[in-house]
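Researcher: Please translate sequence to structure tokens.
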Amino acid sequence: MKRGVLLIDRGSREKEAKEELDFICKKIKEKGNYVFSDYCFLEVLPPFIEEGVKKCLKQDIEALTIVPYFLYPGKKVKAAVNDAIKFQSETDVKFVISKPMSMHKTMTELVENRVTSALEKNNISLAKKEVDVLIIGHGSKDPNAHLSIKYVVDGLTNTFRNISHCFLEIEEPNIQQGIEKCQKDNPEVLVVVFYFLHKGAHVKRDIYEDLNPAIEKSHLKKVLTTEHIGTDEKMIDLILERAREVEHAN
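Model: Translation complete:
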């Protein structure tokens, strides 16, 4: 069957986000043997979902796999799915829609790998059981978002000395509170993981506006930050796994 794949991303004005999505789509097409792979945005800027779906339907395909490229389930994912599926009635191309990138062991592996890379980059040879980790997520009003990041924390509880999470905005604990909690355990090294898909404005600027002052006020000995988690072969494999789950079920 001739099949294409469309990623629906939240959207970002930062050029790095588009560059990352271009790279991911290229890899998905190659590794998944799709006729084509493309992306669109739920909000912020075009191409929006209508443009993305209609572009796909101009391709020589019989089926289209739509992947909500989000770290959390919730209202944003539901909106993306609803906006995309309404075009099914206008075409004979069969749509299938995957799960988002949440509640999967790959997310746990990605976070662990980011911590390992940060330690190696800074020539720190401590065992993982001697390292503390703080995961910073975006924050959401949807309770499922909190469950998704807790899934990762719980999955790594026995890997590191301590691991906790906080949020950039919307919900607590905020970054200041997250750093204060970590400080109480007097870590030798604290690794802060940026739990974001893209190198967008949040990763490039917004986090640091809260993180840097919080670290300066603390008495932490050593704080490292990681790369965001989007552009990784494991993420590409997860996208393909999510896609195949629904493709094989239909």
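Researcher: Any highlights?
Model: The CA atoms of residues 176 and 213 lie 8 Å apart.
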